[in-house]
Give the backbone structure.
Amino acid sequence: QVQLQESGPGLVKPSQTLSLTCTVSGGSISSGSYYWSWIRQPAGKGLEWIGRIYTSGSTNYNPSLKSRVTISVDTSKNQFSLKLSSVTAADTAVYYCARASPAVAAFDYWGQGTLVTVSS
Amino acid sequence: DIQMTQSPSSLSASVGDRVTITCQASQDISNYLNWYQQKPGKAPKLLIYDASNLETGVPSRFSGSGSGTDFTFTISSLQPEDIATYYCQQYDNLPTFGPGTKVDIK
C-alpha cells in the first residue's frame, strides 16, 4: 500500500520560500510510470493543482504559479519536494502531495496534507 | 487554461435520495474527467476516473457519465456517510479542478 507524507515548516514569513517534502513509502518512487504532484487548498476553498514531476525528472507547473514554483525529486530518499518562492498570505493553505498515473491522470494516492501559514 | 464549472455549489437531500451533480468544461476534454469526494479535514478520495469508471473499492451507488464538455456524477441512494464535498477534475491538459459541490443531509 503506497503512502505519502508531507513534511516541512508550518509557518513561513512573507517574501520567503515555502519548502515541503513528500516522503513515499510502500513502493519505490522510481517504479512504474507515475507522476508526483503538489496540490493545495486554502481554508474553505477548492483544490488548486500546483505542479508535477515525472520519475524521469521532467516537470509541469500551473501557469499561474510557474514563476515561483520548483518541484524536484530525490529517488535515493524516495521523496519529492516543493519550493514556492516570494510567498504572501494568499499562499496560506493545506498542501497535499499526490500520485497519479499518466494514463488517466487521476490522483489515486494522497498525503494527509499539511497546513502552511504565511505570516510575519 | 481549461476552466471547470460545477452545479449546484451545494445541495441538501434526504437519505435514500438520488443526487446528481454536473460538471462542465470550457472546451472538449473527451472523457478525461475524474471525480473526488472530500470529507472535512481529510484528503480527497478518487471515486470515478475516465468519466465513468468506478475506482476499486468504491460503492456502486456512485456513478459518472458524460463526454466532451458535459459530465454528470450521481449518487443513486444518498447515505449519511456521503456527506462531503465533491470535485470534478479534468486532465486533457494540465490538471484543473472544479469548484466543488457540498452535499448535506436534509
